Every structure is written in structure tokens, then in C-alpha cells.
Amino acid sequence: MSFSPSRPALTVGSIALSFHRGVAAVTTRVLESCGHRVDIVEAPHEQLFRLQDEGRVDILLSAWLPSSHDTYLSPYREHVRVLAPQYRPYCVWAVPSYVPEEQVGEVTDLTRMEVADRMSKIIDGINPGAGISRFSARMVREYGLDEFGYAFAAGSEPDFCARVERGIAAREWFVVPLWRPQYLNRLYGLRALREPKGLLGTVDDASPVIRRDALDRMHPDAVTRLEALRLGNEGVEEIDALINVNGLTPLQAADRFLLSRA
Fold it and tell me: At what angle do helices 220-228 and 18-33 cross, to 10 degrees?
């Protein structure tokens, strides 16, 4: 890839989860094709938004709006441009497919005695700054699940994925705070529970966020192409599976995905 000296390097910030890395890799290839060199910065949710607010990240991937990340973006929103969404994510609580739906069909079923006696009480999630983690901690309280011994535990993404794989291998009854897009959906066909209180937020728009002072340094074609980039939940899950199941690097996964759609 050749780069024009008149097109400066851009710093792309990726939230520190595998599917965000995949989206950042696709974005990197788009920017490179327009002559930009790309530096990648990775951080947890809240920290990455702070870095962009401080001017240390030009393009953030991705802001889930309005439910998950507006609280992080709103303090500096007038200094950025939010592009059209690349996919439309949403949060769920899910159970393995072998847990009968007639027994566990919605969150309130977790308090039924015959379910509570069998269900794992620790609800393992990812880092506490993620929308799904904030929502889940609140759900434990507002559904009264804590009175039945349930507790939400934030953790790392590798530990979270390993816990799901371990639980399914043992045919354990457990609930997992999940989201689409995420490769575990594709791999295991986890079943979402109905959530009548609406505490998991809405379907969000997942959009690149570009600092306005960075727009002046970007090739116009780069902005146009990012504005038009539509990955969809299925596309992001495909990239995520290439990383986590096939063992590709994010850039390798992005290249394979883009080649399949060329």
C-alpha cells in the first residue's frame, strides 16, 4: 500500500473487544485505500471516548447510540461528526438452546423456584463500562434477582467467552449477558430471553465517530466511503468468527471479508 505524503496519518480508536477490532480493521483498509497511514489505539469503552475527547483519537469505532454509549459521547458531541451506522446492535440476556423455553422464556422466569434451584447464580459479563454490563447490573436489582442469589460479575472478554464455552460443554443452565453482533451467537445459537421492563436499551446505531478537526485532514473519498460502509450484524459476526474461530488477525479477517464481497 502506498501513502501520499499530503495525507497525514490518522489514529483509529477501537473498543477493546474482538468484533470492534474487526470493524476497526475494515475501516483501516478503507482509509489505507485512500492513501492514509493508520495508527490503532485500543482501550475499554469509557476510556476510549475520553481519549477522543482529549484529541488523541481521530476516528472512534464504534459508538452505539443512543442506548449504550451516548452517556460517554454527549460531553463532547459538538466536536465530532457521527457517520451513518455500519450495523444495528442490541443487547440481550440469553440461555443455551437446551434450556427449555417453556421453563425459561423471559427474565422473570429466573425467579421461579424450580429454575432458580438449577440455574447458575453468577451472571458473568464483560468489562463494567460496556452498556450490556451496566444494564445487567441494574437488571439484577430491579428484577429482584439478587433476592434469589443471582449476582452480576464483570470480567474480561476471554474469560467471558471461555465461561460460555465451558458451560455449554457441561450442559449447565446459565444466563449470559450477550449482544448482537458477537460470534457466540453464530457458534452456539443462544436463545434470547424476553425482557419486559426494557432495561436492556433499544436497538442502537453503531456509527464511526470522527473528530471535526480530523475531517479537515481526511481525503474526501475516505469520508464518503466510510459514510456508505454497511457491514450489518451478520457481517460483523462473520468477521468476529474469522478472528475467534478461524484464528485470523483482525486485518486478515477484514481482508477475507472484503474479498468475499468484492
Answer: 140
Q: Give 140's contacts (C-beta < 8 A, 6+ positions apart).
A: 123, 146, 150, 151, 152
Please tell me the distance from the alpha carbon of residue 50 to that of residue 46, in angstroms, as a whole number: 6
Region of 232 please: left (phi>0), alpha (psi -120 to 50) or beta: left
User: In angstroms, rounded to a whole number, what is the distance separating the alpha carbons of residues 154 and 130?
Assistant: 9
Q: pLDDT tens-digit profile of 123-142?
A: 999 999 999 999 999 999 99
CATH 3.40.190.100 in the chain is located at 90-192
Question: Looking at the domain that runs over 10-88+203-260, which CATH code has it been given?
Answer: 3.40.190.10
CA distance 254 to 29: 8
Q: Dump pLDDT digits (tens) for 67-86.
A: 999 999 999 999 999 999 99
The verdict on pTM exceeding 0.70 is: yes
The fold for domain 90-192 equals D-Maltodextrin-Binding Protein; domain 2 (3.40.190)
